[in-house]
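Subject: complex prediction, re-run

Hi both,

The earlier run crashed halfway through, so I resubmitted it with identical inputs.
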Amino acid sequence: MTTLLFLIGGFLVMWMAAGFAMLEAGLVRSKNVTTQLTKNIALFSIAAIMYWLVGFNLMYPAEWMMEGYLGPFFAITALEPVGLDAANASLDYASVASDFFFQLMFCATTASIVSGTLAERIKLWPFLIFVVVLTGFIYPIEASWQWGGGWLSEMGFSDFAGSTLVHAAGGFAALAGALVLGPRLGRYVDGRVVPYPGSNLALATLGTFILWLGWFGFNGGSQLAAGTVGDITDVGRIFANTNMAAAAGSVAALILTQVMYRKVDLTMVLNGALAGLVSITAGPLDPTLFGALWIGAIGGVIVVFAVPMLDKLKIDDVVGAIPVHLIAGFWGTLAVPFYTEGTSFVTQIIGFLSIGIFVFVVSLVVWLILKGFMGLRVSEEAELAGLDTTELGMEAYPEFAKG
Amino acid sequence: MTTLLFLIGGFLVMWMAAGFAMLEAGLVRSKNVTTQLTKNIALFSIAAIMYWLVGFNLMYPAEWMMEGYLGPFFAITALEPVGLDAANASLDYASVASDFFFQLMFCATTASIVSGTLAERIKLWPFLIFVVVLTGFIYPIEASWQWGGGWLSEMGFSDFAGSTLVHAAGGFAALAGALVLGPRLGRYVDGRVVPYPGSNLALATLGTFILWLGWFGFNGGSQLAAGTVGDITDVGRIFANTNMAAAAGSVAALILTQVMYRKVDLTMVLNGALAGLVSITAGPLDPTLFGALWIGAIGGVIVVFAVPMLDKLKIDDVVGAIPVHLIAGFWGTLAVPFYTEGTSFVTQIIGFLSIGIFVFVVSLVVWLILKGFMGLRVSEEAELAGLDTTELGMEAYPEFAKG
Amino acid sequence: MTTLLFLIGGFLVMWMAAGFAMLEAGLVRSKNVTTQLTKNIALFSIAAIMYWLVGFNLMYPAEWMMEGYLGPFFAITALEPVGLDAANASLDYASVASDFFFQLMFCATTASIVSGTLAERIKLWPFLIFVVVLTGFIYPIEASWQWGGGWLSEMGFSDFAGSTLVHAAGGFAALAGALVLGPRLGRYVDGRVVPYPGSNLALATLGTFILWLGWFGFNGGSQLAAGTVGDITDVGRIFANTNMAAAAGSVAALILTQVMYRKVDLTMVLNGALAGLVSITAGPLDPTLFGALWIGAIGGVIVVFAVPMLDKLKIDDVVGAIPVHLIAGFWGTLAVPFYTEGTSFVTQIIGFLSIGIFVFVVSLVVWLILKGFMGLRVSEEAELAGLDTTELGMEAYPEFAKG
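This time it finished cleanly. Structure:
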């Protein structure tokens, strides 16, 4: 049954890859849509290969999983043989394949976060090389500190489904990239922010709904056990809380943009829902529904304030991934002790900072190396003309005239 | 296992929210797409909060679920504590969280139906306030008459998954709104109907497929039990019948529009599939596959005739929600006695009318109050320019020139 | 539990219908999008009815399923009565309804493959009549040779989830149609291939992700048993291998298009992922993850070479369905003996050719009859103006000006 939970959870999280692709394709301008779609399907594919080749065994080193043994860390993931021996056939057995499948989806999610922030100006191949490093090494190393039984878990850090380990980590890698890459041309002029509206809000909304759906797998599957009725009941609690936090984040952004700008801002509402989801991810089991509501709502509020704040700092985050994943991820991690016994604010902050600093510094180094060796950014002409024609020679909407 | 059924069913029905959003965004004109998307994500979020705050306990009043007790009806939903005690750990145990999660999705669906009919002319906030009342009070009260063990269930009324309780109820609320709101400007001129074609039929088709998929959760989960192999086998029957009814409704509309108009009409085919689904929803378990076929096919036929009929009455239903959900919902409710023993046509009609009158009258009063206090309709200028620029200041497709 | 596997697998495969619809709608030009959407929802609906009326019992003839008995083959599918008797209530019981539901989705998939190849020039009704024959007769007959316990299965042919029986069969039916129909006007001029770029690559990418997700049901459900922990563990292996093959196909096409054309081609990457999926479908259980990787990667390579090869032969396949489903299907079938004991290359080739020749010849005859009786192809004027206005009178994107 735990295997089944991993499989259902895993296909739901896999679906989040489509959600990120649609969200990002909807929020970039139409001249960059093909490139954004290509990055999303490519990063998901690369993650699948790198996490198999290196990541999974780096994250959960275990003798019995190693085959083609090259050293304690660099064993390639191997599955158990077909046909389970009777000794293992208990209801809470989790097969290696299902565990690998489920954990891989978290690794891919981390990479998806990065692609949104850096859209519309980064070259395809340096980005994909960064994905190789992120999914093969950076994510597995930091995640092993907690989920691999490392020092953070021994210290008492608590991050149920990855507000810090997945979302904030993706956000830190994106932040490092955004600083190295710089903002899009013409985005900040004379202290003013020039809006670059997304080309297809229907796609962006679809992407958000997909992510919302996939999150039930993300948080629910992280129960990591489904052998008993009690486990499944806990998964139910997680579903209800996850949904509540998303709803609260969305409503908070809805009301706040109406109050602050006199007009509701759909992209803020979408990001508010996502921020609510990120906020509850560190502790979706223990809060009451009211707890999920206020934790998620604060996530929504964070987004409305953090997006313009980043723009003030001239950090150009095309889809708002840093507010949603990094800042709301911090909030979610911090909020755990309100409902989960045996956790402390100090430990939560230490855990968040440790992972943040590690991911940020290593990512920064990787981005700088990539910049030095092959250049990160397309030429000015290419950026103005759009990456689709210049990088790929293929438009996403070739027949729709530009207004 | 029942908990698991609720969770799987629930995430499928949650996905229907995305289906409604895409269907409606595809069927409105592009100048109103952002507004329609905003309404859909906002109504789903509001439903989640209102159904928790009021609705669930209003619908299923039960001592043991009450916490923060304010009176027999207004208790806020509370979950059981984490960790199930052994006494409850049977295979057919359904946790409160999973039940709440599943039932919430039905409540949200009711609200989704309303947004389509009233599109392209209603203001955002009065609509959202109506959603507050509908999801917090109107739906839970009428649904409790049947599913809360109220007088309709005692009378022998039968509505397995909600042809009347969800779909027709949503349709009646929409009808009341359409009457108060009036048709879109320029829609009916000199006794002629001016077609306002949907802006994106690919999205509308995607939305229909999403709804079709989600309906397996809607009808299958309504078995409400999965503790035995027999229960799961019944869920299988429901899946097969649900699919058959949708297919039959689609094919009926396909053939009928070819015969009547010499050209197949895709939007009719989509609505035919949906009407087939609504038609089987009152009784998806008992019919044979042939039963599901003819019940669904009549649903498809109903749509093809009802859409022009509504236009004759100058009731402007942007997406065809009243034919699909109200009229096919009536048909589905009426058809139950053909296959389900112990039901009668008279009881079905009484049940349908009771719920219809209640929802229609209360909705009418709410719409009229909202009209009096804050106005329901945008200005003529705003309607002509589109709600996206005037209400939200944000276009869905800013770069696609208008043809 | 096997019933449950069929239901979960079935709804995932049902979702592939939406995937094909989006993929094909994204890859045709905007003037043919409505027609393509109509074909997809209609073929899925027709398959549901024909597979019930004829196909299922033709494929799995069994006394106990027959009702309305007209002969050994033409019995209409009937479900068991509601309420399972205790004798059958074992965990590995698979109900007729769930089996029918699951197998139906494979039948519908076969038809979906055909619609893509023949897009942009075939009339609606002859295509739908072909679907009637394909889903009622051709597919059930050839599939019964293997899955109905026929001579291929007795011979030792191995096709776990249908690389040959579903994918190549669909590809052969499409190939026959493409030969009878001829290429689109102006596609091949003076030995040069004129590119007709797809109108909406975001939709095409969404469709690919949907198919990727649905494939977990396609391959995983084909385990056909979930009564034991060992079975579920095998399903986990299948999920992991399926995902790996898709990722490898995608990365192979990514790298190869960069190397060969100096620019990554998104549609090739999408088709590469799909070809990887088709390649692993004949044997998703037995390979190691490394096996899935190289089998899938070769699938991706096949697509990159086969697409221009077909164009050289002036076989006009609008979405690349023949390379993806037929040619990669051959590769997948051929690759089975590398990992599955008791299979042989010779038997695999015999099986593939038997099914290929049968489907191709029968399809060819049907296409020629349809051509003779009612004509297959729209007029030249209609093809140039687009099928949406001429065949259906309804544009998919009426407001987006043509660039």
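Chain C has one domain: 2-81+89-392.

- K.
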